[in-house]
Design a protein that fits this description.
The complex is a heterodimer of chains A (167) and B (365). Chain A contains 6 helices and 6 strands, in the order H-H-E-E-H-E-H-H-E-H-E-E. Chain A is of the alpha/beta class and 167 residues long. Chain A has a single domain, classed as Periplasmic binding protein-like II (D-Maltodextrin-Binding Protein, domain 2). Chain A has a 6-stranded mixed β-sheet. Chain B is mostly beta strands. The two termini of chain B are 21 Å apart. Classes of the chains: A alpha/beta (167), B mainly beta (365). At the A-B interface, helix 3, helix 5, strand 4 and helix 6 of A face strand 1, strand 2, strand 4 and strand 6 of B.
Chain lengths: 167, 365
C-alpha cells in the first residue's frame, strides 16, 4: 500500500515535470506590465522636456546646472536593486552598478563635482526630497500623482505615451 | 569566494561611496545645506615586486596613502584637497634623520562654479595637459593598471605633473559634441623640473595651457582631445629653456573594451644656444572586462614608448623607454581590487632588458 502511494506520487511528480518542460516559459507578467519611470524635478526647474542625452549628462554628472547661472542639479536616486535605479544605470548611463559607483567616486575625486547623487530608499522619499530641494531631480515609477513635483517629458514624450523610453 | 576576496571584503567599509546617503524617510531634513560641508575619502595600496635587475622597491612595499577632501563653502564655491603619504627609501638616514614618509599637498583647489559653461578656480592642480594625469590622480584603485604610464609618472621629468595657478573651465553641448575646455596660467616647473613652483615662480614668465576635448552623445564613452602648454624653465644652473608641449588623447571609457591612447611631444629651445630638441612619447592601453563571473576580471595590455632626444640639455640623464605590460585586475569587492602584472622593458638602445612581476592590492575608503 505504502509502495503504491509512493509510486503514484513519483508518477505525479514525473508528469508534473514533463508537463512543465513542455509548456512555454512562464510569462513575466511584471515585465509586460512594468510601468514607465518618470523623471521628476522640483517645481522651480523651468524646463519641461529633457533629451535622453541630457538626462544621461545629468545622471553622470557632466551637466551640473539647469541653465547658465541657475540652480545646481541635486540628484536623488534609489539605492541599488530598486528598478528605477537599475533601469537608469543600465539603459541611460549604459553602465553596470559597479561602473556607476566607480564613475561617481572618480568624478568627485577628480574635483569635477563637489558631491555625488544622494541615495533615497523609497518612492515616497524620492518625491518628498525632490519637492523640498530646489534644483532637484529624481526617478520614480509612473504614474506620479503627488503634488509638489513636476514630471518632465523625455525626448518630447510623457510617461505612458507611446515611444516613451524609460521603463 | 576566494580567500583574497574574503580578506578584501573584510577590509572594505560598506559606507565608502561617493554617493551620499540621505537620512531615513521618517527623519525630517531641511533641504537647506550647511556650509562648509566637509567630506573625507581616500585611496591606498600595498604592493609586491620582483624584478630581474633591481630597479625600484623590492618585495613588499607600501604604496601611497591618499586622503581626498571636499568641502562645499557655498552653493557655488567648493574646496578640493588631496594629500598623499609616500614611504621614503632614505628613511632614517641623514641629519636630521629623514622621516619614514613624505607628506605632499598634491592638489588644493578653490573653485567657483558660475555654470556648466564657466568655472573658475585657483590652487595647485595636476596639470591638465594629458588624460591620465587628471583622470586618475593618486587613486590607484581608479586606474586599471598598477602604475601610471611612465610619461606621466609622479616625480617624473618628462611632463610637468603639477601646476600652481588658476584655471577657467567649462563645457558646452555644441549640438551633442559636448566640447569641454580648460585654460590657465600658473608657475609651471620649478628649478627642479619634476616639481611645480609651489613657493613661487623661478622666473617672471608664467606658464600657460589650453586643453579641449569632446565627448559626443552619439558615441557615448568616447573622449578625444588635446592640449598645448608653454613655459619658460629656469634650472638651478641658471640655464633657461622655452618649453612647449603638445598632446593628444583618444579614450574609449567603457570596459568592453577600454582603450586609452595618449601622445605627447615636448619641445625645448635652449635660450642661450638656440638649439631646439623634440622628445615624443606615447602609450596605448587596452583592457576588456570579461563577461562571466559577475564581470570581476579585467585583463589588460599596455605598450609605452619614450624617445628622449639626446641633444636636449634639459632632459640630460633622462632615459628613453620601451615597455610592454600584460596584467589582470580582479575586483574583489566593490571598493577593492587585486592586480597582477608582468612587465618587460629597456631604457634606451643598448641597455639591458629588465623584466619582473608586480602585484597590488588597492582600495578606496
Amino acid at each position: 500500500m505504502r509502495h503504491r502511494r509512493l509510486r503514484a506520487s513519483l508518477a505525479a511528480l514525473a508528469m508534473l515535470i514533463l508537463v512543465s518542460a513542455g509548456l512555454p516559459a512562464p510569462i513575466d507578467v511584471h515585465a509586460q506590465t512594468q510601468p514607465d519611470i518618470a523623471v521628476i524635478v522640483h517645481p522651480s526647474v523651468t524646463i519641461d522636456n529633457l533629451s535622453l542625452a541630457d538626462l544621461r549628462r545629468i545622471l553622470t554628472g557632466d551637466r551640473e546646472f539647469w541653465a547658465a547661472g541657475s540652480q545646481r542639479v541635486t540628484i536623488f536616486i534609489r539605492a541599488p536593486i530598486a528598478r528605477e535605479r537599475d533601469a537608469v544605470v543600465r539603459d541611460v548611463c549604459q553602465m553596470t552598478e559597479a561602473q556607476f559607483r566607480q564613475h561617481w567616486i572618480g568624478k568627485v575625486f577628480r574635483a569635477e563635482t563637489p558631491s555625488g547623487p544622494k541615495i533615497v530608499y523609497s518612492a515616497d522619499s524620492t518625491i518628498e526630497q525632490v519637492s523640498r530641494t530646489p534644483g532637484a531631480i529624481g526617478l520614480v515609477l509612473s504614474p506620479v500623482t503627488a503634488k509638489g513635483v513636476k514630471v518632465l517629458k523625455i525626448d518630447g514624450r510623457a510617461p505612458g505615451q507611446a515611444g516613451y523610453k524609460l521603463r | 569566494m576566494s580567500l583574497a576576496g574574503a580578506a578584501l571584503l573584510a577590509l572594505t567599509p560598506a559606507a565608502a561611496s561617493a554617493q551620499e546617503t540621505s537620512p531615513p524617510h521618517d527623519q525630517h531634513q531641511s533641504p537647506a545645506r550647511d556650509y562648509p560641508s566637509f567630506k573625507l575619502s581616500g585611496f591606498g595600496d600595498v604592493n609586491f615586486a620582483r624584478t630581474k635587475r633591481l630597479e625600484g622597491p623590492r618585495n613588499f612595499f607600501e604604496g601611497q596613502l591618499t586622503l581626498h577632501m571636499t568641502s562645499e563653502l557655498s552653493p557655488r564655491t567648493t574646496f578640493f584637497g588631496e594629500i598623499s603619504f609616500t614611504p621614503r627609501p632614505d628613511a632614517g638616514t641623514g641629519t636630521p634623520a629623514a622621516t619614514g614618509f613624505n607628506t605632499e599637498v598634491e592638489r588644493m583647489i578653490v573653485r567657483f562654479d558660475h555654470s556648466d559653461q564657466l568655472k573658475v578656480s585657483v590652487g595647485r592642480y595636476h596639470t591638465p595637459i594629458n588624460y591620465w594625469n587628471t583622470a586618475f590622480h593618486h587613486g590607484q584603485w581608479l586606474q586599471t593598471s598598477i602604475t601610471r604610464p611612465e610619461m606621466t609618472q609622479f616625480g617624473g621629468r618628462l611632463l610637468p605633473v603639477h601646476f600652481v595657478g588658476g584655471l577657467v573651465e567649462g563645457s558646452v553641448p555644441a549640438g551633442g559634441l559636448n566640447v569641454n575646455y580648460k585654460a590657465g596660467v600658473g608657475n609651471g616647473r620649478g628649478s627642479v623640473i619634476s616639481r611645480g613652483g609651489d613657493h613661487g615662480d623661478v622666473n617672471s614668465q608664467l606658464a600657460w595651457l589650453v586643453n579641449a576635448f569632446v565627448k559626443p552623445d552619439k558615441l557615448f564613452g568616447l573622449q578625444v582631445g588635446g592640449a598645448v602648454y608653454g613655459d619658460r624653465v629656469t634650472l638651478a644652473t641658471s640655464a633657461e629653456f622655452n618649453e612647449h608641449i603638445v598632446s593628444a588623447h583618444a579614450v574609449w571609457q567603457k570596459e568592453n573594451p577600454e582603450v586609452v591612447f595618449e601622445y605627447a611631444a615636448v619641445r625645448h629651445r635652449d635660450r642661450q644656444t638656440g638649439a631646439v630638441a623634440w622628445t615624443p612619447a606615447f602609450y596605448i592601453q587596452v583592457a576588456h572586462r570579461l563577461p562571466f563571473n559577475n564581470e570581476l576580471w579585467k585583463p589588460y595590455v599596455r605598450f609605452e614608448h619614450i624617445d628622449v632626444n639626446a641633444a636636449d640639455a634639459m632632459f640630460a640623464g633622462l632615459p628613453s623607454l620601451d615597455m610592454s605590460t600584460v596584467g589582470l585586475r580582479y575586483d574583489a569587492s566593490v571598493f577593492a581590487a587585486v592586480k597582477a602584472e608582468y612587465r618587460t622593458w629597456t631604457r634606451g638602445t643598448g641597455t639591458p632588458r629588465n623584466h619582473g612581476g608586480f602585484f597590488q592590492l588597492c582600495f578606496t575608503f
